[in-house]
Amino acid sequence: MRATNAAALREVRRQSIGFVFQQYNLFPALTALENVMLPLELTGRADARSTAREVLGRVGLAERVGHYPRQLSGGEQQRVAIARAFVTKPDVLFADEPTGNLDTATGERIMDLLFGLNAATGATLVLVTHDVALASRCARVIRLDAGRVVGA
Q1: From first to last of its 152 residues, what are the pLDDT tens digits of the chain?
Q2: Closest by CA position to 135, among listed 125, 149, 120, 145
Q3: Phi, psi (degrees; rounded to nearest 5) at 112
Q4: Would you tell me how many other CB atoms lie within 10 Å of the CB of residue 137?
Q5: This prediction's pTM
Q6: Could you give the CA distance from residue 17 to residue 73 in angstroms, rounded to a whole number?
Q7: What's the CA gap between 3 and 11, in Å, rounded?
Q8: In 6-147, where do the E strands start and end?
């Protein structure tokens, strides 16, 4: 891949794609606010702090912006990860087992939040899960087995 193609691909990823990871992938040395600000700062947004605060408020963490990941519950960490993924208003959001590390009740609240933000932003949500109930909430389900499509 030529350098110009790599740069263009990097720019598309930065501006158009969001990720919610199963393990949250928060930076432990950054507060919730700083974790959400990071993708905005990488694009040079002057309003990174205010925008990150607003999105953290939307996920119910306005009172936890100054807390570090180790000071947050698993559900709170996942909400920070969701806020970080949505803060750039991506066209496509990939979520890898977004409730995999959460208890059932917290997982349901996280999925309500994820689907609600998805509906509000109009982003395409690509969800990877083993949870049949969660998959049933999606408009389209593609089943894989050993990397092969076995149902759509």
Answers
A1: 566 788 888 888 888 999 998 889 999 999 999 999 999 998 899 999 999 999 999 899 999 999 999 999 999 999 999 999 999 999 999 999 988 888 888 888 888 988 988 898 899 999 999 888 889 999 999 999 998 999 88
A2: 125
A3: -60, -45
A4: 14
A5: 0.85
A6: 26
A7: 12
A8: 17-20, 92-96, 124-128, 143-145
